[in-house]
Each structure stands twice: as structure tokens, then as C-alpha cells.
Amino acid sequence: MTEKLSHEEIEAKKRTFDENYKKVLYNIGDAAVKSGRRIEDIRLLAATKTVDVSVINHAIESGIKLIGENRVQEYLSKKDELLPCEFHFIGRLQTNKVKYLIGNAVMIQSVDTIKLAQEIGRLSVKNNTNTDILLEVNIGKEESKAGFMPEEIMEKSHEISEIEGIRLRGIMAIPPVCEDGGEKNREYFRKIHKLFVDMQAQKLDNSIIDTMSVGMSDDYAEAILEGSNMVRIGSALFGKRIYF
Ligand SMILES: *Cc1c(COP(=O)(O)O)cnc(C)c1O
Fold first, then answer.
1. Is the pLDDT of residue 1 over 70?
2. Best substitution site from 136, 212, 232, 238 to test ligand 1's pocket, by max atoms within 8 Å of Cβ?
């Protein structure tokens, strides 16, 4: 849940964002150039869970164009107050909550079952819209994490790309937690990048495979160096979270 903050605390959080945002942009630009790209080639998604709406709006006014929430309830509590921005859903999603996202989420990044993809498609068609999706891959094969297994993702992407109402855009992953920054995770990032390239090579119908959404606060530079083109950053922008 979003924390309840005093006016002073909110102002302090805005200043924290301002300082952090500069550093994050610098690091993204640096990693982009080192990987033979430009900063414009990398999309920054601000992961805004637990962040107060007024701080999110300050971030949007400062240049953030894309935000991600990972709980439907929390998103709905903020939605009406948010300034215009592109919204992606990035958390675990039950099929009975898909209805709240259709028409609001430009992209649902955390599709981890065929059933979920079908429900997103069904409700999108019903609402005369299209929803972009990413397939989440459980790259570390962790029991605690959602996502398709790496070895099944190609087959599933074929099946999913044929569902009406959705457009498959690529792959998303949350690699295992590493203590020493992102260096150890580079091997996972390389594996995810290989899956992304293989997915692109399949020439799937109704799909534009252009998004590899990998890299969070502790490892976004390494993720970019290994080919990521969308990083999802929370605490490195907004400061440490008290709740999850
Ligand atoms: C919270 C969250 C992030 C951002 O995490 P940080 O470590 O704070 O950058 C990214 N992706 C997902 C799916 C998240 O839930």
C-alpha cells in the first residue's frame, strides 16, 4: 500500500527523486553508449508501487513518461489522480482482475499463462481495443517466481501470438536476487536476450517483438549492457520502500 505522508515528507521525497533521476539517466545513457546504442533506445519505466500519487506526478512533470504498478487495487486507488502518462501493469495478475486494466494499461508485462493471455484478448476484443503484452520468463527457474520456463517460451509465444485482441511485444523477466550488484546476473541477462532474439526470428503473426524488459534498481546498467531496452526502476528513483 501507499504510505501516508506529511507535506514535508512528500516534498523531501520529490527532492530525493530529482537527485536520483539525474543519476539514473546518466547511468542509462552510459550503458546505452557502451552497448552501441543511444539513450533514446532504452525505455525507462518508473516502478511506482508504494509511491504517493503526488510524488509520481512530480516524476511525470520531471520527464517520466512511463509508469508501472504491480497491484491492481493500488493502481485503481491512484488512477484518477495521475497526470497523463503511459501505464504498464507489471505484477502478478489474476484473470478476474484483468477487467480493471483493459483500456487503462497500454501493456501488461507479466503474462505468465495462456489462460491469462486469452482473458486479456477476450476482454480487449469486447472493448474494441488491443492490449500489448510481454511474456514473463522465469529465467532462474525459481519456485517462488511466476513465468514461463525458458524452454517452453518459444512454443507458447506461437500459441499466444494467435490470440485475437492482444499484440505480443516481447519478453520480461525478474532474475534471481544477487547481492553483489548486477555482475552475477549478466549470465541470466544473456540468456534472456537470446530468447528475445529467437522470438524475433520466429516472425510471429500480429506481433512486433521489440521489447526486452529486464533490469531493476540494482542491475539496470548490466541489463542494458546485455541488450535490455526497457528497465523498470523503483527504489533507485524514489528511495527505499518500507513495504515490499
Ligand atoms: C518493484 C518492481 C520493480 C522495481 O524494483 P526496484 O528494485 O525497486 O527497482 C521492477 N519490476 C517489478 C515487476 C517490480 O515489482
1. no
2. 232
